[in-house]
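Justification of computing resources. Each target in the renewal requires a structure prediction run like the one illustrated here; the chain below, 164 residues long, is used simply to show the kind of job we budget for.
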Amino acid sequence: MTFPTQSRPRHPATVSARRDSRFVSGARTALSVASGSMLVLLIAACGGGAGSGPANSPDAPADAEAETRSYPRNRISRAEIMERGDNASTAMEVVRRLRPAWLLARGADPVVYVDSVRRPGGVDALFNVPIGQIRLLEFISAADATTRWGTGHTGGVIQVVTGG
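Resulting structure tokens:
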């Protein structure tokens, strides 16, 4: 037995409503693009673009550029230690001065790894790493540390990479 495959006739109001919604959607897209363009023009006109500001003026002191440079929250590179380390002599002093939030309690102290080897003593192990050996300090969140090294890293990890 076969049945006729006939589509249902659509009400004319439904068809026109769909056309109207497509038009409104297109108009919103055009409006958002125009608004974004205006915002970019406004920022550029006010001098907020790249290369502006006191740190890039020819009369600005050289250390003003270092003050305005942004560094990653979870890393301290050798270059940053040299620029902003303020005569620190150990890894603990560097962390205390540049990223003190790494040492704040999160339920447990961070575990310290030096060249991928877990060091006993928790964060006090940072006192045993002289600044001259540090190439990179990195904070790794508890979730990422658990993925890399397994359980037991509820406070995260401070990883020290040494070398030339």
